[in-house]
Write a structure and sequence with these properties.
- Alpha-L-arabinofuranosidase involved in the degradation of arabinoxylan, a major component of plant hemicellulose. Acts only on small linear 1,5-alpha-linked L-arabinofuranosyl oligosaccharides.
- Keywords: Carbohydrate metabolism, Glycosidase, Hydrolase.
- This is non-reducing end alpha-L-arabinofuranosidase.
- Pathway: Glycan metabolism; L-arabinan degradation.
- The protein has 504 residues and is α/β, with parallel strands linked by helices.
- The chain has a single domain, classed as TIM Barrel (Alpha-Beta Barrel).
- 25% of the residues lie in helices and 25% in strands.
- The protein is built from eleven helices and 22 strands.
- A hairpin with a 4-residue loop joins strand 16 and strand 17.
- Helix 3 runs parallel beside helix 5 and helix 5 runs parallel beside helix 6.
């Protein structure tokens, strides 16, 4: 959590950091990923059999090694929009017997050569947990129950035995399951009204929790500040042992929201992720409102927010049906850093966040047949994932503000947009970490950093200007390392992300 005081632009900015003020625990799951059968994310991305860079499973080893460096806790699969016509049984068993199907989300053909068992094996290779999304379009509840049984079943039952027949004796113990994806969207197969979705979601949740009470079920929200979010939370966040639920455990554990941001102009681009901060605040209030109105007992675990699709994405610049391969700039990298600052500041409410996507599709990591490219957006993700863990701590920022256009426009009337966007954490190792994004395209800010002591490690992500990219065959944006004595002021360079790190 960072509080803010507005200064005139001529005044010296001040960042005050208070490691003794632990606000909330940062869930490591905010650094999670997402893989969808879309473009080159799966085929040619994480799975590329026959390529010299792939292992015996067809997994790209260069991609595996890069992703291991991010320490990704959870990866969502198989969508996204794709899951609304996906039948998991098509993707298990002997590969020569798997059917190819028309794929309606991105208008391609799905060969099903990569399915549940391949994804689980890939997750084990990365060192991450799977998160699966049920087909709420053409799928059935029986099919969903079968998928859970296949993944988690331990008894002498049909789908558990099918898993064993397919070569996996032990259960996968998949915890995270989404009750559909963007069911409100006109692009969805079997788009639903909020009333139809809420009825279906609670009925599926009851059956799924009967089969496996340990599941973490994730409700399909919209953008947070919508009537869809209010209605579905109100209808589905019911007390255990209520008229709608005989379960001894809550039916809904998390509420999903999605948001993508972008602008062709730098300052609207880099301030746009602040819309996510307000969306989280509104969603958190709607969760509380539903609990109050439904008289949920205070000892029933309060759901958290699953921000399971987020990123910088201009769907005109990188069309989804064409593979959505974005070429990211330094401006986009700084927007990603502001996104990550938001998740750290809002750690009390965010139980998971999944950057969309992990490889090739609007991704910080791109593949060719010969290797990989780490886009500009890779570096803030790497820095945050490595260091911004532990506890969100109290911090206060005093600086000038950007007063121009925002995208979305409502951000201008809802919140401040300071030149220095800040989050602060205290790691389990006793180190304070402060992430500072100077969003200004033109001005360095000489600032006081109150609370910094000793030798301070400094990591800086910047470039010659906000338009530079790493997709031109040259690494224009990377991490520069240095130190600072913590005496005097510190100059935060224009259009930069700076991470300051010192022992508390």
């Amino acid at each position: 959590m960072a509080t803010f005081t507005k200064l005139d632009d001529q005044e010296t900015p001040v960042i005050s950091v208070h490691p003794e003020r632990k606000i909330s625990k940062i869930n490591p799951n905010i650094y999670s990923g997402f893989t969808e059968h879309m473009g080159r994310c799966i085929y040619g991305g994480i799975y590329d059999p026959g390529n010299p860079l792939s292992d015996e499973n067809g997994f790209r080893t260069d991609v595996l090694e890069a992703l291991k460096g991010l320490n990704i806790p959870v990866v969502r699969y198989p969508g996204g929009n794709f899951c609304a016509t996906y039948h998991w049984l098509d993707g298990v068993g002997p590969k020569e017997q798997r059917p190819s199907r028309p794929e309606l989300a991105w208008l391609g053909t799905e060969t099903n050569q990569f399915g549940t068992d391949e994804f689980m094996k890939w997750c084990e290779a990365v060192g991450t947990e799977p998160y699966l999304c049920f087909n709420f379009g053409t799928g059935t509840l029986d099919e969903a129950l079968g998928w859970v049984e296949y993944c988690n079943g331990t008894g002498n039952t049909y789908y558990a035995n099918l898993r064993r027949k397919n070569g996996r004796e032990e259960p996968y113990n998949v915890k995270y399951w989404a009750l559909g994806n963007e069911c409100w969207g006109p692009w969805q197969v079997e788009q639903m009204t909020k009333e139809a979705y809420a009825h279906k979601a609670i009925q599926w949740a009851k059956a799924l929790k009967l089969l496996d009470p340990s599941l973490i079920l994730i409700l399909c929200g919209k953008e947070g500040a919508t009537t869809w979010d209010y209605y579905t939370l109100k209808e589905c966040l019911v007390p255990a042992h209520s008229a709608l639920s005989t379960s001894s455990v809550p039916l809904i554990d998390m509420h999903s929201i999605h948001l993508y941001t972008s602008s062709s102009s730098h300052l609207p681009n880099v301030t746009a992720p602040l819309a996510a901060e307000r969306a989280i605040e509104v969603t958190s209030s709607l969760i509380d409102l539903a609990r109050v109105e439904n008289q949920v007992p205070p000892d029933q675990l309060r759901p958290t927010i699953c921000f399971d699709e987020w990123n910088v994405w201009d769907p005109i610049r990188a069309e989804g049906s064409q593979g959505a391969e974005e070429s990211y700039t330094l401006s986009d990298a700084l927007a990603v850093a502001v996104w990550l600052n938001v998740f750290v500041r809002k750690s009390k409410d965010v139980g998971m966040a999944n950057i969309a996507q992990t490889v090739n599709v609007i991704s910080p990591l791109m593949t060719t047949k010969e290797g990989i490219t780490k886009q500009t957006t890779w570096w803030p993700l790497w820095l945050f994932s490595r260091y911004m863990r532990g506890w969100t701590i109290g911090s206060h920022v005093s600086s000038g503000t950007y007063e121009g256009e925002t995208k979305p426009a409502w951000v201008r009337g809802a919140m401040q947009t300071p030149w220095l966007d800040v989050s602060a954490s205290l790691g389990e190792d006793g180190y304070v970490n402060v992430a500072v994004v100077n969003i200004s395209e033109e001005k360095d800010f000489e600032s006081r950093v109150e609370g910094a002591t000793g030798e301070v490690q400094v990591f800086t992500v910047t470039g010659a200007d906000v338009s530079v990219s790493n997709m031109n065959g040259k690494e224009e944006v990377a991490i520069q390392e240095s130190t600072w004595s913590a005496s005097g002021s510190y100059v935060f360079p224009k259009h930069s992300l700076t991470l300051l790190r010192w022992k508390a």
